[in-house]
């Protein structure tokens, strides 16, 4: 059976499963649409939360980021995982005890202000829309490669799939679909990793293989990888090169950004009891760890496989004594089919610059060492593999390693499951903010439940259309969507939730001005270096460490934005009247452990 047919079978079967679940778990009320009627078991919710969290960025991009940057990009693992610890300890149980459907609803009620609620909606929409662009891009890339359609066609197919199960099922349908998607994506991520770990290290567990011996050389695996990449003129894989300050700030920004992401927080509104919220956060960490502990191995093994494919001699330490892969090999050898198929997506590009029929992959900026010596001796004119996208490393890894066709098909289904599960969670958060917080909360408080449910479904459909159009024509800042989404969540949502739960003194004026200050300062800082979206492609200042304020990278600024939010909120609250007595009592009641098994009803 050819690869295309296998891909079609595996992807089609997974979609049929998602549609079947959506029909079975169709939401019939607003309680089911927004919060699955608060009836989800904590283990199931932990699995759904893991799928909601592990997006196209986690499944497709993260190992690629680690593959090409090595040690420095371990910040993604530490920050994203640490955020769940914050959620479990500081936010999830208390927000569940409050008993509301959405994050802006909590902000509006706790700070007794419709204005605060609307600002919460604006923050949520900016965060979720920028985040969902990346998911739709992931859907387009995966479809383009595995169903051999254009990226645009892939996006529309993905939008139709999400529309069918998210609009129909709401949170109830999405929850059980995400459980299925978690199972698909974890199998898809783990099976190729096990195969590749066995091939390179003879170790069944990739987590242990990473620290084991490399079969071809007898060296420690990471030592062998360091040797290969430094021979090719790149920096050592295990070396820390960036600023330690930025590494710490970026990890913190990812942590508090994770804890402030609305589509993740609303998952904890779906469990029956307060204690279940903390329990499901713990289970989510377990399920996330199954992928996140494998990711460093996937990234490093992908990097070694790519390097040794381009320079077969690198596997035995004779990097330049054997010729590089040739153009003839790429056209004729079945094991190099992956290069031809990925070249069609535009995510892999090569060019024979010196006309010798070979494709040399090395760092042409290296001025000394084997790479520079070889370039001088052979008259090379530059790196001839100029484009290897981070986004192809996980998806192409099974093909680079010549794994069976069914493994490649599973990875295709897994990549789509990761992107679609997060897209559905984000779209649900957007539709809840529009229908529950804007329409019911601000425009028409007397709306009937039937009309609100219809409004929720319509706003979900519109959200999917907008997300697809943004995915087709991404704005100038699309490449920075993750930095922007996490920076905004860290600087706007996380502080106001923390102060809402743990401070009786912060009032509505403090919350409003804190959110505005945190959000605007972060937006201004990021777009100063990353390009303002109303002046496409231009930057106010060049994005270099020399221009950053105190050397703080734009992606790390969320922590500073959060500090500004906290400071402004406390200063303004101190200069204005205390919150009403009933609000202070409410804050006290949220934190009191008495009756921790029960929750306030909506």
UniProtKB/TrEMBL annotation:
Keywords: Cell membrane, Ion transport, Membrane, Sodium, Sodium transport, Symport, Transmembrane, Transmembrane helix, Transport. The keyword Cell membrane applies. GO terms for biological process: carboxylic acid transport; sodium ion transport. One of its GO terms (cellular component) is plasma membrane. It is found in: Membrane. One of its GO terms (molecular function) is symporter activity. InterPro entries: Na/Glc_symporter_sf, Na/solute_symporter, Na/solute_symporter_CS, Na/solute_symporter_VC_2705, Sodium:Solute_Symporter. The keyword Transmembrane applies. Its main location: membrane. It comes from the Bacteria. It holds the Pfam family SSF. Belongs to the sodium:solute symporter (SSF) (TC 2.A.21) family. This is Cation/acetate symporter. It comes from Paracoccus lutimaris.
């Amino acid at each position: 059976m050819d690869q295309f047919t296998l891909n079609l079978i595996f992807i089609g079967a997974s979609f049929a499963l998602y549609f079947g679940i959506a029909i079975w778990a169709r939401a019939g009320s607003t309680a089911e649409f927004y919060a699955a009627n608060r009836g989800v078991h904590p283990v199931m919710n932990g699995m759904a939360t893991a799928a909601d969290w592990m997006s196209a960025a986690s499944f497709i991009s993260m190992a690629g980021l680690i593959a090409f940057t090595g040690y420095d990009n371990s910040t993604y693992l530490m920050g994203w995982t640490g955020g769940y610890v914050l959620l479990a300890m500081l936010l999830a149980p208390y927000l569940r005890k409050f008993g509301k459907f959405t994050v802006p609803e909590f902000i509006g009620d706790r700070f007794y202000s419709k204005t605060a609620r609307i600002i919460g909606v604006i923050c949520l929409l900016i965060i979720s829309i920028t985040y969902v662009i990346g998911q739709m891009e992931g859907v387009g890339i995966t479809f383009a490669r595995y169903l051999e359609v254009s990226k645009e066609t892939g996006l529309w197919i993905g939008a139709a799939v999400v529309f069918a199960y998210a609009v129909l099922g709401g949170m109830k349908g999405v929850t059980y679909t995400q459980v299925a998607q978690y199972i698909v994506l974890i199998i898809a991520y783990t099976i190729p990793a096990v195969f590749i770990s066995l091939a390179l290290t003879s170790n069944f567990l990739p987590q242990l293989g990473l620290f084991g011996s490399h079969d071809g050389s007898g060296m420690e695996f990471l030592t062998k990888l360091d040797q290969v990449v430094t021979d090719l003129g790149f920096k050592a894989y295990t070396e820390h090169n960036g600023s330690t300050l930025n590494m710490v700030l970026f990890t913190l920004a990812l942590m508090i950004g994770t804890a402030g992401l609305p589509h993740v927080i609303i998952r904890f509104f779906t469990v029956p009891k307060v204690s279940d919220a903390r329990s499901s956060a713990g289970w989510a960490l377990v399920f996330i760890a199954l992928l996140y502990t494998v990711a460093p191995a996937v990234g490093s093994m992908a990097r070694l496989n790519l390097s040794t494919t381009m320079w077969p001699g690198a596997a035995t330490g004779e990097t330049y004594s054997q010729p590089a892969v040739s153009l003839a090999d790429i056209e004729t050898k079945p094991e190099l089919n992956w290069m031809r198929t990925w070249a069609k997506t535009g995510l892999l590009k090569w060019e024979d610059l010196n006309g010798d029929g070979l494709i040399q992959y090395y760092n042409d900026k290296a001025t000394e060492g084997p790479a520079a010596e070889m370039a001088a001796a052979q008259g090379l004119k530059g790196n001839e593999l100029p484009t290897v996208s981070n986004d192809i490393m996980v998806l192409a890894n099974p093909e680079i390693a010549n794994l069976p066709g069914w493994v490649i098909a599973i990875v295709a289904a897994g990549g789509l499951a990761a992107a679609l599960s997060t897209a559905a969670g984000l779209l649900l958060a957007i539709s809840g903010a529009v229908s529950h917080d804007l329409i019911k909360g601000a425009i028409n408080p007397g709306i009937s439940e039937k009309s609100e449910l219809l409004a929720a479904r319509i706003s979900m459909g519109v959200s999917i259309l907008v997300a697809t159009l943004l995915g087709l024509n991404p704005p100038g800042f699309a490449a920075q969507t993750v930095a922007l989404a996490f920076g905004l969540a860290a600087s706007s949502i996380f502080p106001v939730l923390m102060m809402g739960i743990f401070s009786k003194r912060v009032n509505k004026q403090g919350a409003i001005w804190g959110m505005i200050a945190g959000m605007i300062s972060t937006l201004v800082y990021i777009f100063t270096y990353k390009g303002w979206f109303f002046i496409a492609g231009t930057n106010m200042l060049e994005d270099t460490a020399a221009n950053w304020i105190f050397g703080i990278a734009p992606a790390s600024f969320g922590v500073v934005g959060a500090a500004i939010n906290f400071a402004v909120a406390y200063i303004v609250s101190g200069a204005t009247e205390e919150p009403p007595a009933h609000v202070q009592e409410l804050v006290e009641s949220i934190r009191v452990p008495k009756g921790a098994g029960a929750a306030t009803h909506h």
